[in-house]
């Protein structure tokens, strides 16, 4: 039996703060299947996140699919104060 969905890309990269919809990387091949997406990602925090897509087939079986969301950007902002050198 063919899969009810297709994950379009195994890794999706966005910039920090960019809007992201987990469904945007999924093609639904079977309109009678129910599709659910995880939302454990934070587009305002750079890092790698695993997006889980759960599919309940019309006959009851549940399959899980995964892909990686990479949020690019600086994790930390460091400011150096050079005015007090040599105390």
| CATH homology-level superfamily | Immunoglobulins
Number of domains: 1
Helix content percent band: under 10%
CATH architecture: Sandwich
Whole-number radius of gyration?
19 Å
Q: Based on CA inertia axes, which overall geometry fits?
A: rod-shaped
Description:
With 87 residues, the protein is mainly beta. The chain has a single domain (5-84), classed as Immunoglobulin-like, CATH 2.60.40.10. Helices cover 0% and strands 41% of the residues. The protein has no helices and six strands. The chain has strands spanning 5-7, 11-15, 26-28, 34-37, 47-56, 62-72. The strands form two sheets. It has a four-stranded mixed sheet, with no helix packed on it. It has a two-stranded antiparallel sheet with strand order 1-3. β5 (47-56) and β6 form a beta hairpin. It is rod-shaped, with a radius of gyration of 19 Å.
Would you kindly provide a brief summary of this structure?
The protein is mainly beta and 87 residues long. The chain contains no helices and 6 strands.
List the helices and strands and how they pair.
Elements (H helix, E strand, L loop, with lengths): L4 E3 L3 E5 L10 E3 L5 E4 L9 E10 L5 E11 L15
Parallel strand pairs: 2-6
Antiparallel strand pairs: 1-3, 4-5, 5-6
Using brief descriptors, characterize the structure shown:
0% helix; four-stranded mixed beta sheet; two-stranded antiparallel ribbon; Immunoglobulin-like; mainly beta; 87 residues
